[in-house]
């Protein structure tokens, strides 16, 4: 994961898409986790 000097632009675009999809997955996971904790904590407390 470093600067390749733009030798493979298509590869960089693929990496960006993979990173974006991973970020979106992590974001959705975080939102789901917050919703789960928010709905579960009142029952526990």
Give an account of the 3D structure.
The chain is 80% helix and 0% strand. The chain is built from 1 helix and no strands. The longest helix has 36 residues, at 9-44. It starts with 8 loop residues before the first helix and ends with a helix. The model has no long low-confidence stretch (mean pLDDT 78).
Architecture blueprint of SSEs:
Layout lengths: L8 H36 L1
Q: Beta-strand level of the residues, as a percent range?
A: under 5%
Run of helices and strands: H
Mean pLDDT: 78
Low-confidence stretches: none
What does the largest sheet look like?
none
SS summary, helix count? 1
Number of strands: 0
Instruction: Briefly note the structural class of the backbone.
Output: mainly alpha
How would you name the oligomeric state of the polypeptide chains in this document?
Answer: single chain
How would the global form be characterised?
Answer: rod-shaped
Distance between the termini: 44 Å
Helix content: over 70%
Radius of gyration, taken over Cα atoms and rounded to an integer in Å? 18 Å
């Amino acid at each position: 994961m470093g600067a390749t000097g733009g030798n493979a632009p298509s590869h960089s675009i693929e990496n960006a898409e993979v990173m974006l999809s991973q970020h979106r997955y992590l974001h959705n996971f975080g939102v789901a986790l917050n919703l789960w904790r928010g709905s579960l904590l009142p029952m526990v407390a």
